[in-house]
Specification:
Number of strands: 12
Radius of gyration: 21 Å
Distance between the termini: 23 Å
Bound molecules: pyridoxal-5'-phosphate
């Protein structure tokens, strides 16, 4: 089965990890700070806090922004559940803003309408918005950031799909151009992998400090942070907040450092695959994604126009094509129904979902494999 996504691990990656196992600290050594520095260098962001998953990064971003009981967070239905769960972890409430059917990202117009409506009706406004650069394509950040400024709302970019992508202004996703935090994931299907892993990027020193505190038990031993410290007691550490152990290990970080060296190659390979699909599939009765050369191309999603999605999906799987579906709208999950969300509330996300199929796209996908995917699609759809 050709998977929809797959990591590329080189012998050099393996040797780097073995070196850590043989000669270095396994955790809290030099690899994690070096990985954080490499991410700062790559993205152009100022501060980086590496953590053990993209989900942890989202949770920590919410905590550092002071989100808690009584607060409201908005995100999009067309994402992985973690984009919404992070608010619930903090005791806050969640609501959604629909997507733009063309970009499949948060619709800035829908956001504006919803904000104006809530303000006019005296309803609660969100304390933070989690935007998702779906498939690696940057959201309309200029417009969204302007609305966030107007309404004094914090912005979190869930860039689990976005590392290696750029905004139209040319800055890299993660540069901190628009949001308070940008979160990354290093799960094996993402742009680079550490097996499990994630990171927060921010340009705000205070937020960076708070994020680091929450990611390591809320405990610090930084002399400049300690309260009422006695210089005769150099061993002192203090818990100053209720944090978590969300640290990344040095074994994982070493893999990340090495992977990051090949990130641009990975993104170029993904773009080539997207371009090849785009040229080959344009004659079929399907909606293709926007071919944006700034995208990180985490996913290549087609939308069927008249064919039955389940039938086509199952035919592709039967022919050895490991297609997938991204995403079941978050508010459709039983857990979210129990919170009061209903089908029909976010029609663009729901219509998109009913027709979407994610085709295989990953750096090592061969032309031969891709041609097989294309042939099967022609057999089913032409
Ligand atoms: C992968 C992903 C996450 C979660 O990342 P993990 O590292 O798996 O915890 C969050 N949001 C989106 C959009 C993702 O694709």
């Amino acid at each position: 089965m050709i998977p929809y996504g797959r990591h590329s691990v080189s012998t050099d990656d393996i040797e780097t990890v073995v070196d850590v196992l043989q000669h270095q600290f396994l955790t809290q050594g030099q690899q994690v700070p070096a990985f954080e520095q490499a991410l700062v260098q790559y993205t152009g962001g100022e501060y980086c806090i590496a953590v053990n998953s993209g989900t942890s990064a989202l949770h920590i971003a919410c905590l550092a922004l002071g989100i808690g009981a009584g607060d409201l967070v908005w995100t999009v239905p067309n994402s992985f559940a973690a984009s919404a769960n992070c608010a619930l972890y903090c005791g806050a409430s969640i609501d959604f803003v629909d997507i733009d059917p063309i970009t499949r990202n948060l619709c800035p117009k829908a956001l504006e309408v919803k904000l104006n409506h809530c303000k006019a009706q005296g309803l609660d406004l969100p304390k933070a918005i989690v935007v998702v650069h779906f498939s690696g394509l940057a959201c309309a950040m200029e417009h969204i950031a302007e609305l966030a400024r107007t309404y004094d709302i914090a912005l979190i970019e869930d860039a689990a799909h976005g590392l290696g992508g750029r905004y139209p202004c040319g800055n890299k996703i993660g540069a901190g151009t628009y949001a308070d935090f940008t979160t990354l994931s290093f799960h094996p299907v993402k742009s680079i992998t550490t097996a499990e892993g994630g990171a927060l990027m921010t340009n705000n020193q205070e937020l960076a400090k708070r994020a680091r505190l929450f990611a390591s038990h809320g405990i610090t031993k930084d002399p400049s942070e300690l309260q009422n410290v006695n210089p005769q007691e150099p061993w002192v550490y203090q818990q100053q907040a209720l944090g978590f152990n969300y640290r990344l290990s040095d074994i994982h970080a070493a893999l990340g450092i090495n992977q990051l060296k090949r990130l641009d190659q990975f993104i170029t390979a993904r773009l080539r695959i997207a371009q090849r699909y785009q040229a080959a599939l344009s004659a079929l009765p399907i909606t293709l994604p926007i071919l944006d050369t700034n995208s990180a191309w985490h996913l290549y999603v087609i939308e069927l126009q008249s064919h039955d999605r389940a039938q086509v999906f199952n035919a592709l799987r039967a022919a050895g094509v490991g297609v997938n579906v991204h995403y079941i709208p978050i508010h459709w999950h039983p857990y979210y129904s129990e919170l009061g969300f209903e089908k029909g509330q976010f029609p663009n996300s729901e219509t998109y979902y009913r027709h979407a199929i994610s085709l295989p796209i990953f750096p090592a996908l061969t032309h031969q494999e891709q041609d097989h995917v294309i042939d099967v699609l022609y057999k089913e759809l032409a």
